[in-house]
Amino acid sequence: MFWEGRRRRADARRALEDWHAQVRAADWKTPADVKAMFGDASVLKGSRVVFNICGNKYRLITKINFPYRVVYIRFVGTHEEYDRVDAETI
To answer: Would you state the pLDDT for residue 10?
Structure first.
């Protein structure tokens, strides 16, 4: 897990578990449904959505298959790590 073995990331555990529980219960048909639930999420092209985790300390990039209601986690990291990836292609 993202938070294991790294004491400085231990704060991410609860936030990521909370995000996961909310996403499992969601029934998103469109990116607008995501924005209605997570107003600070960034919807990108290619069905990518970036979520702010733990008070915006971490970023979570997903690819969402809306017709099948499947959310793929593509990346979890700090802002510094996020700045080194291309959120639209990862």
So the answer is: 74
